[in-house]
Amino acid sequence: xxxxxxxxxxxxxxxxxxxxxxxxxxxxxxxxxxxxxxxxxxxxxxxxxxxxxxxxxxxxxxxxxxxxxxxxxxxxxxxxxxxxxxxxxxxxxxxxxxxxxxxxxxxxxxxxxxxxxxxxxxxxxxxxxxxxxxxxxxxxxxxxxxxxxxxxxxxxxxxxxxxxxxxxxxxxxxxxxxxxxxxxxxxxxxxxxxxxxxxxxxxxxxxxxxxxxxxxxxxxxxxxxxxxxxxxxxxxxxxxxxxxxxxxxxxxxxxxxxxxxxxxxxxxxxxxxxxxxxxxxxxxxxxxxxxxxxxxxxxxxxxxxxxxxxxxxxxxxxxxx
Length: 321
What we know:
321 residues; alpha+beta; Jelly Rolls; Phage tail protein beta-alpha-beta fold; 13-stranded mixed β-sheet; three-stranded mixed β-sheet; 8 helices; 31% strand; elongated
């Protein structure tokens, strides 16, 4: 291999021989390291060449040729290059010299899943982590998690039961905030078209990080939640009872504003509610409905716990009064 490398840098290999040599180098990390070292050495030595160096070198080589054979000349040239490189390396950044055989980053392939309105989906990731995604949620998953972390991107709402892996944290990236965990159960509400953001922790421990201000983060313990208030993250006590929701899709709400329930329906069913002056949307209510039901059936169910009227203008617009 060393003799072939000598010939390569002296320009004595044919195109076919060069290709065979480079294929060998690419398949062996030891050969690749030696090639890069010699390439750096020879390249750096040439950076300090001055005008007339070639003529001087030719003359000296011719003189030396009368006393030593060609093989010795090759070794002498490479050795001289090595010594020259020791001086020249002080004046150049090494990253300029070995780009040909630096390993290229493997392109990351993703799968994107979009949940239809009025539907939910359950999925299991490659590490065993489970996720339940709410209507009109979009999740982007790498086809293979990296060795450092397990990252997914979420636009919508999802409940995650994360498989523990101390070496690779699980990260849910949203438009504004990242949720970082090792192994836990939590719910994220983060639709990009909504100003609301919530993370409810059921089990384990999570860290919620502001993408714009990484120093701003909150650690949650079980039965705590973080939400937005005037663009600031606020931690509070909360119990996220999701057992019935996960098993049957029945959405249970306790002591929530009627306006919040309408926000859910807006996102889940892609409808616009026009609120008339007579509507009492700030009243707190409790109840439940099946998430997969048609929007009108859900509105009729809500009328059982709150006094309001509605008028369906079209498939995408409903008046509340």
